[in-house]
What does this fold into?
Amino acid sequence: MDLELKDKVAVVTGASKGIGLAVVRMLAAEGAFVIGGALTADSLAGIDRVSPIEVDLVEPGGSERLVRAAVAEHGKLDILVNNVGGVKLRTGGFLSITDEDFERSLQLNFFAALRATRAAVAQMTEQAQGTIVNVASVNAFFHPDGLVVDYGAAKAALLNVAKALSQELGPKGIRINSVSPGPVATDLWLGDHGVAATIGKSTGIGADAVREQAVAGMSTGRFTTPGEVATLVALLASPKTANVTGSNYVIDGGLIKTM
It folds into this structure.
C-alpha cells in the first residue's frame, strides 16, 4: 500500500535507536524527509532523506529546534512523531521515589512531547494541516505498576492531552493520535540494563525468567518488534487515515484482555 508520504516532512524525537530509529527508517522508506533528533545521532548518519540533529530534548528549546530545522530545510512540517522517552524501574518502592525523580520522568516522557507539540502546532496551524503521533505505553492504563509509577503517570498525561487537543485541532486540519506498545524487543526491555535484567537481578530469578513471564501474558507468545510499532505510526501519519484523530492504538501481542 502506498501511504502517500512521499515528500512529506517529518520530525521524529528519540530517533537514534529502538522504536524511534525504526520510525525514521519507515518514514524515509515511504519517501518522507525526516528530521531525526536524539542526544547522539551517529546511527542516523547516511540514511537517505534523513537529517540527523543532536539535541537534548529535555532542555527547553530542544524540541522547538527540531521543528525550526524542518521548516528551515523544507519549508513546512507535515508530521511530528513524539517518541522520545525512557524509564527507570523503582525497585525501592514508592517512598524511595523523590519529587525530583517524578520531575525527571515527566520532563522526558511528557514535557518534551508537549513542547514539541506546541511548536509543531504553531507551524501546522499556519499550513492548516498536519498530523502528530505520540508513542505512549500500555503502562499509562494497564495494571498500573509501582515499578514504573512515574513513567506510567507521564504517559497517561500524554494520552490525556492528545485526546483533549484532538477536539481543538481537528477543525484546523491537524490530527493527533497515540500508539501504546506493550513490551517491545528493544534495549529498554531486553538490554543488559533493561527491564528484564533489572527485575531479574532485584528479585533473584534472573532476566530469562522475567522475559518468559512477560511473554506468557501475550497471546502471540512474543515481544512486539520496533518495526511493527513503526508501521502503525506510519499508517497513522498517512493521509490514508485522514479521519482518525484522538485515538489510541494498542500494540501489545494480546497482553490486554479487556475491551
In short: The helical segments are 18-29, 62-74, 99-127, 149-169, 187-190, 195-203, 207-216, 226-237. Strands lie at 9-13, 33-38, 50-54, 79-82, 130-135, 174-181, 248-251.
